[in-house]
Design goal:
binds nicotinamide-adenine-dinucleotide; alpha/beta; 268 residues; 7 strands; 9 helices
């Protein structure tokens, strides 16, 4: 019984397809590697087609694809989903890792009084509207063509929960909004057996974290390190491990929640 069950699970796992937006970024790439290692086929979606294809080609296993997507564009998302759903297969796992930190053109994290409407709009367009549009498109396809074990994984941040220590208003607001969106979509898609959860990473060793710190000292990885109970920032593979769990069939009874992967910087 146990072995028949595991064999069924492993057959299902190899045929599941995951779409990762921002799949060429630091965290999206790590998630792509982990889900591919878990036996899923992965579509790496990012603004640059060549980079997405290059990353997809280097993933373990087979059947991976790279696609171009601009998550702020309804047309781009519709075209990408149409291609994937008709040419690759139905998406079982959508992970929305595309995001921007909302730096000003000079690279600084602007204080409220210096935050332009352009920076605000751009940050919310990618981080919130982009997430909404991708999740909506996924839900439309799954309503027409259901799949077993459907999963949506959104990406918030401890910044959205705490108010941010080295990020500012557009980013923090966008990441708080993702948590609300995750919960309402979890309620709506529950009837289809699709779970919807957020990961809220704390600071992770990535170019995004480095780009928004105030210090210019190369040894400083995070401005508020003294607030990290585990005494370090996270690594991309630790976020990928959380995504692996939420994507798995073991997480079937987990929905509408936020998985904090943050070294203890925020405890509920
Ligand atoms: N790095 C961290 O410490 C950290 C902490 C908390 C949350 N996060 C969140 O995790 C996600 C990934 O972060 P990361 O560190 O990998 O950043 P990253 O900059 O390395 O990756 C983000 C990716 O999103 C892509 N992207 C940007 N705009 C896009 C658009 N319009 N359409 C499609 N793709 C677009 C970029 O090309 C990039 O590849 C982000 O949402 C970020 O806010 C990161």
């Amino acid at each position: 019984m146990a072995s028949a069950e595991s064999s069924n699970l492993s057959t299902a796992a190899t045929s599941r397809l995951a779409l990762i937006t921002g799949g060429a970024g630091a965290l999206g790439h790590a998630v792509a590697q982990r889900l591919a290692a878990d036996g899923l086929r992965v579509v790496v979606a990012d603004v640059g087609l060549q980079q997405a294809e290059r990353i997809a080609a280097a993933l373990p296993g087979s059947g991976h694809r790279g696609v171009a997507i601009d998550v702020t564009s309804e047309e781009s998302i519709a075209a990408a989903f149409e291609t994937i759903e008709t040419q690759v297969g139905p998406i079982a796992v959508l992970a929305t890792f595309a995001g921007v930190v909302g730096n000003a053109p000079d690279g600084a994290q602007p204080a409220l009084v210096d935050t332009t409407l352009e920076t605000w709009n751009r940050t919310l367009a990618v981080n919130v509207t982009g997430c909404f549009l991708c999740v909506r498109e996924f839900a439309r396809w799954r309503a027409k063509h259901p799949v077993p074990h459907g999963r949506v994984i959104t990406v918030s941040s401890s910044a959205g929960q705490l108010g941010g220590y080295q990020s500012r208003s557009p980013y923090v607001t966008s990441k708080a909004a993702v948590l609300g969106l995750t919960k309402v979509v979890a309620r709506e898609l529950a009837a289809q057996g699709i779970t919807v959860n957020a990961i809220a990473p704390g600071p992770v060793e990535t170019p995004m974290t480095r780009s928004s710190r105030k210090s210019t000292d190369a040894q400083v990885s995070y401005d508020a390190m003294a607030l990290m109970p585990l005494g370090r920032i996270g690594m991309p593979h630790e976020i990928a491990a959380a995504a692996s769990y939420l994507a798995s069939q073991d997480a079937a009874f987990v929905t509408g929640t936020t998985l904090d992967v943050n070294g203890g910087v925020r405890m509920q």
